[in-house]
Structures are given as C-alpha cells and as structure tokens.
Amino acid sequence: MRVATSRRGSSTAPTRQRVAVVIPAKDESRRIAATVRAARAIPHVDLVLVVDDGSEDATQHVARDAGAVVVRHSHNRGKASAMETGAAVVAMRDVDGRPPRMLLFLDGDLGESAVNAAPLVQPVLEGAADLSIALLPPQPGAGGRGIVVGLARRSIQSMTGWTPTQPLSGMRCLTREAFEAATPLAHGWGVETGMTIDLLSKGFVAVEVPCDLRHRASGTDLRGQMHRAAQYRDVLLAVNARKMAGVARGVGRAFRLRRRGG
Ligand SMILES: O=c1ccn([C@@H]2O[C@H](COP(=O)(O)OP(=O)(O)O[C@H]3O[C@H](CO)[C@@H](O)[C@H](O)[C@H]3O)[C@@H](O)[C@H]2O)c(=O)[nH]1
Ligand SMILES: O=C(O)[C@H](O)COP(=O)(O)O
C-alpha cells in the first residue's frame, strides 16, 4: 500500500458503515451485468448504482436486470458528471441517523474482476485514508506510451508532493466528506487528476492499493489514440484550472496582507 505524504485521516466508525458502488457507464451492455454482479459481492456494499451516461445500447436494462439501481442521463455528459449524479443519488438514498455511505467508484467494464476492488474499502473504513486508489496489474492489449499518465503524475507531484503510480485509475473509494471536498469535479477524463490534487491540497490522505482488476484497455488503433487525446485535453484543463486557482488565492492573500499592513 503506497501512502501519500499528506496529513489527516478521518475517523469513520467501522461499525454499521455501508458502501455504495457507483458505476458510470456509457455503452457497457456487454460487460455491465458481470460488473454489477461482482460489485454486489464486495463486503459492506448494500447499494450498486449504475449511472447510464446517455448510452446508445441496452446498458440501463442489462444493469437493472443484474440487480443495480439505475439512473440515466438522457444525453452523454462525460464520466465526471456521471460520478456527480451517482453521488447525489446515493445521498438521497442514505438513511437519517446512519452514517452516509462511503462511495466506491468502479468502471463498467471490469466484469467479474470488479469483486477484486474489495481491498479499497478497508483503509477508508478504518480511517487510515480518506481516498484509496486501485493499482491495476499490466493489462493485456494496452497500447499506452505513458504520455497522459506522465502528465497527470508530474502535475500531481508538483502540486502536492505525492507521486502516484497510476494517477488515472478511476477505481477509488472515498468518504462522503472527501467526495464533497472534491466537488465540483474536474470535467470528463480530468476527474481523477483533479480529485487527487484537490484532496491532497486540502490535507486528505490518499493510498494506492493493489487490486487484481481487468478492464478493456485502449489499444494503439485510431480509436485508442483519439481517446488518449481527449484524456490529455481533460487532464491539462483540470491541472491548469487548479494552477490558476492557486495563483488567484496567492494574489488575494498578498492583497489582503498589503491592505492590513497599510
Ligand atoms: O462519456 C463517458 C465515457 C465513459 N464513461 C464510463 O467511464 C468509465 C471509464 O471509461 P473507459 O472507456 O473504460 O476509459 P479508460 O481509458 O479505460 O479509463 C481509464 O482512464 C480514465 C481517466 O482518463 C479513468 O476514468 C478510468 O477509470 C481508467 O480505467 C467506463 O465505465 C465508461 O463506461 C462514462 O460514464 N461516460
Ligand atoms: O492507455 C492508457 O494507459 C491511457 O489511455 C493513457 O495513455 P498514455 O499512454 O498516453 O499515458
């Protein structure tokens, strides 16, 4: 388990704590049933919510038949938006007098391997971390050259001091407090990078946890390269927005100090 060098670990009571799995899904009808069934088998999970992000296939029906609660965007809005919708729906289904459910975000294409995300729950449940991020084994057919991953890793490193191994990994478990501190989420594929920067900057603790997960990796074909270009764009936008916000905060602080001094 790799631990970020940041402070703070929230003290989530281990008893009665429940976990909601949130699965953003766009055109995942081939794998979503196996993913949902496997997610339901993860200890502490009592709700599996699929957010169908404007799919053109039967994702919503297949997911419902497999036992998920399903909500749907009528138009595609991107992964980050699906995550926000999912968290809002979980909040509506939380019960008064019980702690809010922890959130476990899983991709829709994990299939049966989704059950192997279970080790993400424990560090957050025990309060050792606020955010746990899955470290995946090498994926068959993956065609990445590390360009997007490198951009995200270097950006997180320079802005927080922590060097994640897999900065784009979207399989992550976090407390509701941490999720709320990370909103509004960065758009689209920038969501993981933005979330990690925001949470570590605010003193939350992140860990990376090895999980034996398999997903549909992007290849080297045109589709794969187009996908990476979109990822690069979104990660860059997320990082630049946070850098600008940092500059604005610095200017504001200097201005206030000057006024106080004068
Ligand atoms: O508009 C979209 C596109 C995708 N998805 C879902 O988002 C998840 C991840 O998408 P995927 O196509 O599998 O992307 P990958 O490139 O394989 O994703 C890697 O990189 C992303 C960041 O760029 C992370 O979000 C992922 O967790 C990580 O597996 C899947 O469940 C998709 O169905 C949406 O909800 N809306
Ligand atoms: O295939 C991948 O690992 C992601 O799409 C990121 O691509 P990258 O190789 O440019 O980092």
From TrEMBL:
Question: Which EC number(s) does UniProt give?
Answer: 2.4.1.266
What Gene Ontology molecular function terms does this protein carry? glycosyltransferase activity
Q: In which organism is this protein found?
A: Cellulomonas bogoriensis 69B4 = DSM 16987
List the top taxonomic levels of the source.
Answer: Bacteria, Bacillati, Actinomycetota, Actinomycetes, Micrococcales
The Swiss-Prot or TrEMBL record describes its family as follows:
Belongs to the glycosyltransferase 2 family.
What is the name of this protein? Glucosyl-3-phosphoglycerate synthase
The record's section on SUPFAM superfamilies has: Nucleotide-diphospho-sugar transferases (SSF53448)
Q: Which UniProt keywords apply?
A: Glycosyltransferase, Magnesium, Transferase
Q: Which cofactor does it need?
A: Mg(2+); Mn(2+)
Q: Which InterPro entries match?
A: Glyco_trans_2-like, Glycosyltransferase_2, Nucleotide-diphossugar_trans
Q: List the Pfam families.
A: Glycos_transf_2
The segment(s) forming the Glycosyltransferase 2-like domain are 21-110
Q: Which reaction does it catalyse?
A: (2R)-3-phosphoglycerate + UDP-alpha-D-glucose = (2R)-2-O-(alpha-D-glucopyranosyl)-3-phospho-glycerate + UDP + H(+); an NDP-alpha-D-glucose + (2R)-3-phosphoglycerate = (2R)-2-O-(alpha-D-glucopyranosyl)-3-phospho-glycerate + a ribonucleoside 5'-diphosphate + H(+)
